[in-house]
Amino acid sequence: MLTLEALSDAGQVISAIAVVVSLIYLAFQVRQNTASLRTENYARALDRIADMQARLSADKCFAGIVSRGAANPARLTAEERIQFSWAFYEMFGAFEFMYLQWLDAAMPAEVWNRWAPTLQWWLSLPGVEAWWRSRPTPFSPPFTALVDSMRAAGPPDPAASERHLAFMRCGATDAPPQKPPSEIG
Prior knowledge:
The protein is mainly alpha-helical. Helix content is 76%, strand content 0%. The chain has one domain. It contains seven helices and no strands. The termini are far apart.
């Protein structure tokens, strides 16, 4: 026969088991929520970058403004400088978002490690460097410190940067020369 004391002890054991199960379930839910948040942040960051890339690839005039401004902002009109400036506020805003999310462990390190050299490469261009120095509004202190350290370091891969600049000038690259379409076949 069960005594009141035995029933009380059994109730405490069952309560303790229920608390442990609840904590395990809660930990599982938090882990799933964290993974979902990381995925959402990754998608938001990529959407911002993809929007800029799509605009650059689809809008010849805009691409010209960005490429001329990145090389030498003195080649831009006042209106083009405004477009250039806002384009880089958007781009650097996306980089800042990724960086801050990475600092908070809300974005996978692989994502930030893929885009950090891209940010550093943009900073190596004279017009982007000039824009960064002249921007009238600040970015967050951690991102500003990162950008300033990247500016001091120079491009992440100087040889790759040179090849890209040569490509943009229609100069030589490491790729073998291609035959004109009329000579193929």
